[in-house]
Write a structure and sequence with these properties.
- The complex is a heterotrimer of chains A (425), B (363) and C (461).
- Chain A contains 16 helices and three strands.
- By secondary structure, chain A is mainly alpha-helical.
- In chain A, strands 2-1-3 form a three-stranded antiparallel beta sheet.
- Chain B has 363 residues and is of the alpha/beta class.
- In chain B, strands 1, 2, 3, 4, 8, 9, 10, 11 and 13 form a nine-stranded mixed beta sheet that branches.
- The relative contact order of chain B is 0.18.
- Chain C is an all-alpha fold.
- Chain C folds into two domains: 154 residues, no CATH class; 250 residues, MetI-like (MetI-like fold, Orthogonal Bundle).
- The longest helix of chain C has 41 residues.
- Chain C is flat.
- Chain C starts with a helix and ends with a helix.
- The model of chain C has no long low-confidence stretch (mean pLDDT 86).
- The chains are: A mainly alpha (425), B alpha/beta (363), C mainly alpha (461).
- The interface between A and C is large, with 84 and 89 residues.
Chain lengths: 425, 363, 461
């Protein structure tokens, strides 16, 4: 085969080879594009779904305060034992719509406002110290079905039996909206309330506080123990069986599914040690064990990254090994350690499965006030709401997810900032 | 850099370090030093059917009274009684709600654990529906159809013989039923709805076979085994104590049926609809006047011993049995509860006030 | 005197002890020139005294916090009349609850004189105990300070003492990881063994039907109670397989792109974005699966005339695949970048295109690392819980059809344990047997994966 012949053959194949090259490169770009478009898709979906949850339809009702004998027994009301606040709300509504309600109509009118309306009226009357016969405008939340209608998430064209609001109710809503009584405002309840079965009252405050308590416990345990373990393994551990066992345990724990940590929490803390179910204390313990490997592994990397020359210099001028570690290695490794801890904490914040095992899925209305109070956590709240059939909970689930992602973003920004500051030094 | 020469300064804490240490200790101390108090809230377990009613009463009670909001867990009626009957004390629930009356075996279990005085409060009625997605075709079933669709074994060709349920598709049972696969989502054995469903709907369909009906008096346990055993070959899918989940699944799968309480259907009319049973569609009036065959009362069971010591329990019972809760204009009725006649309501309110315990009445 | 004050006081004493120890050392060492005469730096004498002042007192305080509740209650019980003390434990428990609740309300007075007396008794006990603990802690702190100060003298090896304490803390901390592992193994194993007393092991491992909802009382008919894990394993593997079919090509090609093709600026943008994908909590993925992917898969299937279950394995697997992408891409990226440049340069010198270099040289060289990463990803997918709890079904079908609903090991653990739990029934214990199996499988995969990754790393280092 002549040289020219060979060259021609090579050149003939060249086009195909380059084409393959281009195709392969395109494949790589497509893969990255796909992965990133999944990210965009998820976020766009959540924002599109959740944005409307930050507003809520409310009614400005002119309440005429009258002392009426309450027709019912029931739990004693502390402040105004003789007032039927729900009736006040109903009267105001009927007045606005100029109707004389019969029983069926009363039922339909009641369904326009939140079940909480009476209590809102009570609270505002209580704070305003009104005399009987006085008039006062009180803003009460609309019911979630009305809210969905206002937000256009309820199909008006469906046959009446298939929608939760009757034709008459829809007409009333339109009237109220046209007269400016029914307006959309910022949904404060979402941030100030605990959980509720009523979408218009449900809020994430209880869950956020529960998550905060848990993370406090987690941080208190995981940070010192994790850093100490990392220091021990990197700086002091003799090359013996003990160090090997510790090392193997940590690597394994890092890969154990989180739900198994939940089983541990259930069997050890709740069944064996008798801690209360649903308590942030137990949740914090479980999450601490879960984040410990993350903290240890990243702290070890940070400690290992401190140049050996620093250790040698310090040892050379007569520092003890403990002094080397405490005064020189740890301060230099601290940014890396902190970054790792924050990453671990953000993982703990998003963790759900182990919390299901230790009873943190209960329906809890009151905001927890301590480590032993029954509580839930933000991701568990998301799980609970995503299970609810009411249409209005879907948007609130997305909103809660946005808040959770916001917290995670903040934590990661903090980690990035710490890393930046160190790199600039 | 302060990694410098050895001076007396080297290991001295700077004021900043000391200050941050003191701040840390200060921030942590409340975590450790919480003064413990007793349980100061009502603890309710029980039926997933009653759960939406229990939570709404609990929420309103927490909002309207000076007491804390009761803690409500959905465990199923049977699961609830198990927890409820485990003993007297703060670790045990005060109330177990149920979508069926308490069984004598459960009463005995209660008693053997020292739970002797139990107050039974009926709050209203509820039907059990056989529901499917709105997009599914309308279906009329009979109790016999339900039995033939869901029983594990069906009577064979001759009296006394049983064969594994051969029906794969609804149309296998009889003509006129849809041709698609039998797929029914229903509650697990911890559920009161399950108990009532197998007893009323399947039991009724089962009784139409003469030789099995004869067993009911002669060999009740055999009768139960034949009539109440649900098939396990995938046609019946057990969901947890979570009716929401069933509704979601029905919406996604128009060929499936789901079993749950009428109140739940009533709250989700925009998603699901009930199949007619023995010619009657489930509806408010049809259940209230007893025409719809599968209905049952709903109950709250309360430990009398707890009433005096758990803060708010007595007030909660008053709220629960009040007119504004259970009456014809009450907020539970707005949520799909079928109210009792006024005389019954008065009776229950009296029972709640006087704490009349069940054990005397039952024996 | 509440606990916060005690803790604050104790830290105050600690700070004071530090300065006392340091100044004593400086004084004994001879003022400004002290460093030359002292064995350790002056600060160490301060730390030594501070440790003696606070540590024993802190342990006493902690111990007291642990037993406080029980001691106080026992104290109240002894003060109750004979007739009440002999009540059944449950009744006594309720009565004490009443006392505890009344005690925290400032001016509550019980109607029942016995309870009112007990409440007063309890309040007094709380008051007395808090003061006595405060005094005891204070005394202990003083005593420790005094004893430690006596030891401080120029030749005293304060640094060694302080370092010994720190060193002990380090060892203790490192044992937590081992304790956790042992704790997991023991707790899960113990309950699983109780399960295997009721259900034979071979039935659990080789049974083909899963139906754990047994009757809960005698007069009820539940399901027969079969505990064969085959359908659960099949479901888990099916979903894992689907997720790997998504994650492996996309993750691997993304890694090839970021490691071999992209400029460092593009890399600097793409990698953090992929990390964001990894940082999204799984409950969010689960919600996304239920809200968007499952209906979409179903609609698509129907448009093609296929029979898709509402909770198809496909939907859960797809979303799980997306979750796994960043894991595979980052591990594969590491593996590809660890391949020495000499191999790349050699291939280029021979005239190979990039494609030929990557496919012919780099990927084979990085294969062990990539394989290890895939094993880790599989282990992650098997143990993933929230996505399948929300998006996969409960029906234990033994099927390989991705359009059908399947259930997984983790879904069943959650279903069995959420809600009522009794630690006697096979139903609850079965969850622990499943947990044990999950633990063993993921551990094996992990050990295998790490071995691959490590051995490979060693080859090029």
């Amino acid at each position: 085969m002549s040289k020219i012949e060979r060259r021609r053959r090579i050149e003939a194949r060249l086009g195909g080879r380059h084409r393959r090259e281009r195709w392969f490169r395109l494949l790589g770009i497509t893969a990255v594009g796909l992965a990133l478009s999944f990210l965009v898709l998820i976020l766009a979906n959540l924002v599109g779904e959740g944005a409307s949850a930050f507003t809520q339809s409310k009614l400005d009702l002119p309440i005429r305060y009258e002392v009426t004998a309450s027709p019912t027994g029931g739990a004693p009301d502390v402040r105004y034992p003789d007032v039927d606040y729900d009736a006040l709300v109903l009267d105001a509504l009927a007045g606005l719509l100029a109707v004389e309600p019969d029983r069926q109509m009363r039922r339909e009118l009641r369904q326009l406002v939140s079940i909480d309306a009476g209590f809102v009226v009570r609270d505002s009357l209580g704070s305003a110290e009104q005399a009987p016969g006085a008039r006062l405008t009180v803003t009460v939340p609309a019911s979630s079905n009305v809210d969905m209608l206002v937000k256009g998430q309820l199909d008006r064209s469906l046959p009446a039996v298939q929608r939760p609001l009757s034709d008459r109710q829809i007409a009333w809503v339109d009237t109220l909206r046209d007269s400016g009584v029914l307006v959309r405002r910022f949904n404060t309840a979402l941030f100030t309330n605990g959980d509720s079965r009523e979408p218009e009252l449900a809020g994430i405050r209880g869950a956020v506080v529960g998550s905060f308590y848990m993370l406090a416990v987690t941080l208190l345990l995981a940070f010192p123990i994790g850093v100490a373990t990392a220091v021990y393994l990197e700086e002091f551990a003799p090359r013996n069986r003990w160090a090997d066992v510790v090392e193997i345990s940590i690597n394994n724990l890092a890969a154990v599914p989180s739900i198994v940590f939940g089983l541990l929490g259930l069997a050890v803390f709740i069944d064996w040690l008798g801690f209360p179910r649903s308590a942030p204390l137990v949740g914090g313990f479980v999450l601490a064990l879960l984040t410990l490997p993350v903290v240890i592994i990243s702290s070890r990397a940070a400690i290992r990254g401190v140049p050996g020359s620093i250790r040698e210099a310090a040892l050379g001028v007569g520092a003890s090994r403990m002094q080397v570690v405490m005064d020189h290695v740890l301060p230099l490794a601290l940014p890396g350690v902190l970054t790792g801890t924050i990453i671990g904490m953000s993982r703990a914040l998003g963790e759900t499965a182990p919390l299901l095992m230790i009873g943190m899925v209960a329906f809890i209305v009151d905001v927890p006030t301590g480590l032993g109070d029954p509580a839930t956590a933000l991701p568990v709240q998301i799980y609970l709401w995503s299970d609810s059939p009411e249409r209005a909970f879907a948007e609130r689930t997305s909103a809660a997810i946005l808040v959770l992602l916001g917290f995670l973003l903040l934590m990661n920004l903090l980690a990035v900032l710490i890393r930046r500051r160190v790199e600039n030094k | 850099m302060k990694h410098s020469v050895i001076t007396t300064q080297s290991s001295m804490p700077s004021p900043r370090r000391l200050l941050s240490l003191a701040l840390l200790v200060f921030a942590l101390s409340p975590l450790a030093a919480n003064a413990q108090s007793g349980r100061d809230y009502v603890y309710i377990v029980g039926s997933s059917t009653v759960y939406p009613f229990a939570t709404i009463v609990a929420e309103r009670f927490g909002r309207g009274s000076a007491y804390r909001t009761p803690k409500v867990e959905s465990t199923g009626s049977g699961g609830g009684f198990k927890l409820f009957c485990d003993g007297i004390g703060v670790d045990y629930p005060d109330i177990s709600n149920s979508s069926r009356a308490i069984k004598s075996t459960e009463l005995e279990a209660c008693r053997s654990n020292g739970v002797v005085d139990i107050i039974e409060l009926k709050i209203g009625y509820d039907g059990i529906v056989f529901a499917s997605a709105l997009s599914a075709p309308d279906v009329m079933l009979t109790t016999a159809d339900i039995y033939h669709a869901l029983a594990k074994e069906l009577p064979g060709s001759e009296p006394g013989s049983l064969v594994a349920n051969p029906n794969r598709r609804w149309a296998d049972i009889r003509d006129g039923l849809p041709a698609h696969r039998i797929e029914v989502l229903g509650p697990p054995p911890t559920s009161g709805t399950r108990d009532e469903f197998v007893e009323i709907a399947m039991g009724e369909g089962c009784r139409q076979v003469p030789w099995i009906a004869a067993l009911e008096t002669s060999e009740p346990s055999r009768f139960r085994a034949i009539c109440h055993t649900i098939r396990e070959d995938g046609a019946f899918i057990e969901t947890g104590e979570n009716d929401n989940l069933i509704v979601q699944k029905l919406e996604a799968n128009p060929r499936a049926f789901g079993i749950f309480g009428f109140s739940f259907l009533d709250q989700n009319t925009d998603k699901v609809k009930g199949a007619g049973i023995d010619g009657v569609k489930p509806g408010f009036e049809a259940i209230a006047d007893g025409r719809y065959p599968v209905s049952r009362p709903l109950y709250f069971y309360v430990k009398k011993d707890h009433v005096a010591t758990i803060p708010g329990l007595r007030a909660f019972l008053a709220e629960l049995t009040s007119e504004r809760t259970l009456g014809e204009d009450g907020y539970l009725v707005d949520r799909g509860l079928i109210p009792m006649p006024v005389a019954e309501r008065r009776l229950e309110a009296d029972n709640a006030r006087t704490l009349t315990s069940l054990s005397l009445a039952r024996e | 005197m509440n606990m916060t004050t005690v803790v604050l006081l104790l830290s105050g004493v600690g700070i004071a002890a530090f300065y006392a120890g340091r100044s004593r050392a400086l004084r004994l060492g001879g003022g400004i020139d002290a460093a030359r005469h002292l064995h350790s730096l002056p600060g160490y004498y301060g730390y030594f005294v501070a440790i003696w002042a606070t540590l024993p007192a802190a342990f006493v305080l902690l111990g007291w916090l642990l037993v406080r509740e029980r001691l106080l209650i026992a104290w109240v019980v002894t003060g109750l009349p004979e007739s009440i003390r002999e009540l059944p434990p449950g009744q006594l428990d309720l009565l004490l609850n009443n006392v505890l609740n009344l005690a925290v309300l400032p001016d509550a007075v019980a109607a029942d004189p016995v309870i009112a007396a007990a409440t007063e008794h309890y309040r007094a006990a709380v008051e007395i105990s808090q003061w006595s603990v405060a005094v005891a802690v204070g005394a202990l702190a003083m005593l420790g300070t005094w004893l430690a100060l006596r030891l401080v003298r120029p030749g005293f090896r304060a640094r060694n003492r302080v370092e010994a304490v720190i060193s002990r803390f380090l060892v203790a901390a490192s044992s937590i990881a081992i304790l956790t592992t042992i704790g997991i193994v023991l707790s899960v194993l113990f309950e699983a063994l109780r399960f295997f007393e009721q259900v034979p092991l071979h039935e659990f491992l080789f049974g083909t039907s899963w139906s754990p909802q047994t009757a809960i009382r005698d007069d009820q008919v539940g399901s027969s109670g079969s505990f064969g894990i085959a359908p659960l394993l099949a479901g888990t593997l099916l979903i894992t397989l689907i997720s790997m079919l998504i994650a492996l090509p996309i993750g691997l090609m993304s890694a090839v792109f970021t490691a071999e093709y992209s400029t460092s600026r593009i890399r600097g943008v793409v990698k953090p974005l992929l990390e964001v994908l990894a940082g999204i909590p799984t409950v969010v993925y689960g919600f996304f699966a239920v809200l968007s992917v499952a209906p979409w898969v179903r609609g698509l299937g129907e448009a093609l005339g296929l029979d898709v279950a509402s909770e198809s394995a496909l939907a859960a697997g797809l979303v799980m695949g997306v979750m796994i992408i960043p894991l595979i891409s980052s591990l594969a990226d590491d593996a590809i970048r660890a391949v020495p440049d000499s191999l790349r340069e050699g291939a280029t010198a021979l005239g190979a295109t990039r494609y030929e270099t990557i496919v012919g040289i780099i990927l084979p060289a990085a294969m062990p690392g990539i394989a290890g990463g895939v094993l880790l990803a599989v282990s992650r997918a098997i143990g993933e819980t929230m996505i399948v709890v929300m998006a996969a079904g409960l029906a234990a079908n033994l099927t390989a059809n991705p359009l059908e609903a399947v259930t997984t090991v983790t879904v069943q653990i959650v279903t069995l344990l959420v809600g009522d739990q009794e630690f006697e029934s096979a139903k609850t214990l079965a969850a622990f047997a499943l947990g044990l199996m999950l633990f063993v499988i993921t551990m094996l995969l992990n050990v295998l994966g790490l071995t691959f990754v490590r051995r490979y790393r060693e080859r090029y280092e």
